[in-house]
Amino acid sequence: MATERVRVRGLNIYRPIIYGNTATVLNPKQREALAPTAPDHTHTWTVAVRGAASAPDQDIVGGADDISHFIKRVTFKLHDTYPNPSRNIDKPPFEVTETGWGEFEIQIRITFVPDAGEKPITFYHHLKLHPWTATGEPEIPPIDVAAKLGPVHSWQYDELVFNDPFQTFLNTLMAHPPTPLVRSRRKPVPFHLAHMGGLEASKGGTPEFTQQMEKEEAERLEEARKAIVAEEERWRVKLIEREKELEQLQKLVAERAQ
Amino acid sequence: MANSLEVRAILDLPSTSSATPTIPQKKLSVPTIRKPEGISRELYSLIGPSSTTLVAQLAKPRLKQKPNLNAGSKIKWEWRPFKNGGRTDSLQLKHWVKASTEADAEYPFAKYNIQRPKYNDYSLEEYTTHLEDAKWSKEETDYLMNIVTEYDTRWYVIYDRYEFPGGVARSMEDIKDRYCSICRKLIRSRPWTGDESSKNALLSSFSFDKEREEMRKRYVASLENRTPEQIAEEEALYMEIKRLEQNEKRFKRERDDLLRTIGGIDSGLPDVVEDEMQLTGLSSSELKRSKKKGGDLDTPATPLLSTPLSRRPTMPPQNTAADRQHCITRTEIPGATSATKAAHQPAYLRSFKLPYPKAAIAQKVTQALAELGVSHARLVMPTQGNVALLEGLLDATSTLVDMKKLVDKAEFDIQVLKTRLGMQGAAKAEETDGDVNAMDMDDGNDADADMDGDADGEGEDGRAQSVVSTRSARSRKHNRRSMSISSVDTSATVSTRAGTKRQRRG
What we know:
The complex is a heterodimer of chains A (258) and B (506). In chain A, the strands form two sheets. In chain A, strands 5-2-1-8 form a four-stranded antiparallel beta sheet. In chain A, 27% of the residues lie in helices and 26% in strands. Chain A is an alpha+beta fold. With 506 residues, chain B is mostly helical. Chain B is 54% helix and 3% strand. Chain B has helices at residues 4-11, 41-47, 52-59, 124-131, 138-150, 155-161, 172-189, 196-205, 210-224, 228-263, 273-278, 280-289, 302-306, 320-326, 338-342, 362-372, 384-423, 429-442, 448-458, 462-480, 483-488, 498-505; strands at 77-82, 93-98, 328-330, 348-349. Mean pLDDT of chain B is 71; it is low at 274-318 and 434-506. The interface between A and B is large, with 71 and 80 residues. Strand 1 (11-25) of chain A pairs antiparallel with strand 3 of chain B, so a sheet runs across the interface. Chain B: One of its GO terms (molecular function) is transcription corepressor activity.
C-alpha cells in the first residue's frame, strides 16, 4: 500500500509565498454603481495568496509563479456581514475581490494537494484599506485625499515549510522550482509594521518583494544584536566592579564584626 | 391345564420369545475379529482400525539388528615379537596381533615418538656469552637442560625429578623460566635458516612470563580453595551485578526514549530500534557520515537509511546550488524509527515558528528590542537566515537582561552593606568615602568629570550624603546614556532623583 508513500527524511523544502491585500478607493462612478446594494462601501479590495516573486510585466504584487501544483484550495473567510463569507477558491488565481468600507481580519486557510499528505494551515490577515501612517496609529484620511494617494498594499512574505515530504510530492515540488526574488528593488518596497522606517520607500506604486529586503532586515537584526552585545559588555564591566566593591565592603563588615 | 406353549402349538401361533421360558440358548458370541498385532487388544479396540499410522507402526516392531560381530569366520590371534622403530635399543617385545597382519609390519605407535629440537647442546663460549645467569651455575644449567630433554619438557615430571645436588630449591616457574630464556637466547644468537616470521613464531612459543604464571597459579589455587560460603557469596554478587547492569541498561533506554519524545528529531540521539534490525552494520557508519544541514554535501547513501532496504527513493544528485534553487534544506537524519515517524512535523508557515523569549523576562526583552526598533514578533522577510538571526538577537537580549539583573542585585547588596557600615561607627566613614569615590573615578565611560563635580558639590556633610550623591550621579550617568536601557532597569535604579533617594533612606 505504501509503496510510493515514502517520506524523504531529513529534508525540509519550503516555498515562498505572499499573502495580503490591495485596496483602492472607489471612484464616484463605481460608487454610483454600487449605490442600490451597498451605498456605504468606500473601497474595493482584493485579498490573495500568491507566489512571492513578482512578474515584471504585471502590476500585481507577486504572483509570478503558479502555486497550484502544491496548493489545492484557498479558503478566505470574510466578515460575517458579507454574503457567503466563506469563499473557496479552487483554482488560481487564489484571490477574492470585494467592496467594503471597513477593515477586519480575514482568515485564510490553505489546503494542500492530496499528494502532500498535509493538513490545511490557517492564518490571518488584517485587511488594510487606509493608507499606512508613520506612527502606525489608524488615521483615516478623507475620501478625496485617500483617492489621490492611490491603492493601499498590505502584504506579508512568508515561507511554507514542508518537513519530510513524500517522495511524489517532493518530485512535484522539484518540478516547479520557485522563481527567485529579484535582487534589488526596482519598485516600491512593501511596507511592514515591523519596519516602520520603510514607510517612505513603500510609496509610489505597486510594491515588489526583493532579496534586498531580506538582506536589509538581516542587517537590521545583526545591528541590533551587536548593539545588545556591546551593551551587555558594558554591563558586565559594571558587574565586575560592583562585585569587587561588594567584596571589599563585605570584608570591612567582617572586620567590624570581630 | 394347557400351558401357553401347547396352546400356541394347537393354534399354530408363532411362539414369542418373551413368553417362552428361558430355553438355554447358546449365547451368540460377538463376531471375533482377528486380534491386532503389536498392541494390546484393549488398546486396539480403543483406537480402532482406522488409525493407520499407529496400527502400521506398531504392527511391526522395528528393532535394531544385533550387530553381526564377525559372525563370519573366526579370527586368529598370534603372540608375536615386534620391533619398535622408536626405540634406540633393540629390546624385543611381544604382543598379540591378528594373524592376518603381515609380519614385520611397522609398529603403528612408533610414529608418535617425535623428537623435539634439543637446546642442551650449547657450547661453552655460547654459555659464557649469552646464557650466564647469577642464580644459575653452569652445572645446574646443564643438569636442567639435560633433564628437560630427557623428560621431553614435561614440566611436572621434571619438577618432580629435579634434584640438583647442592642447589637451592627451584620452583617449577624457576626452571621453566630458565629453560625458556635459554631457548630464546639460543634462537636469537644462532644463525637461522628460514624466514623471519617462522623464527618469530618459534620465539613466541618460548615466551614465558614468570610473574604472570605465578600469579595465575595463585589465582587458580585460590579459586579452588574457596569455602562454600565464599562461593555462594560470589554467586550472589555476580547475580547482583548482572541485575544492576540490566537495570542500568533499561534506565538508559527509557531515558533515551523520553528524551527522544521530548526533544523530537533534534534530540541528538541516534535512533535505535528499527535501524538495528534493518541495517545493523551500515547504520552506525552511515550515521557518522551524515552531516548537518547547511550546504554540506550529503552522500546519496544517507536517504537510504530512512527507507527499508527494498525501496529506495531515487534521489537526484544533491548539491547546494540545486538545493537553494528548490529551497531545500537537509537536516541530519536521525534514522527512521517509530518515534520520529509519529512526530512528523506538519507543514507550517515559517512566521508561525518564530523564536519567543522566555516568559519571565519576555516583557523586558520586548521593551529592549522595541527601543532598538526591532519587533520580536514579526519579521518583514521571515526566511531561514533571518529567523536564525532573530533567534540570536533574542538570546543576546536575554543575556543582557540577566546581566542587568545581576548588576542591580549587586548594587542593592552594596547599599545594604553600606548602611550597615554606616551604622558601625563614623571613624571608617572617610575610608568608605574614598573607596566609593575612587570607584566612581574608575567607573563609567562618560561624564566622569561631571560625576566628580557632583560628588563634591552635593556632599553636604558625612558620608551618608556622599553615598547618596554618588548614587544620583550614577543614575544621572545612566540618563546620559541611551534612553533605552534605563527604562528597562529594575527598581533599584529606577528613580533618578536624588531627593527621593534621600527620603527613602531617611
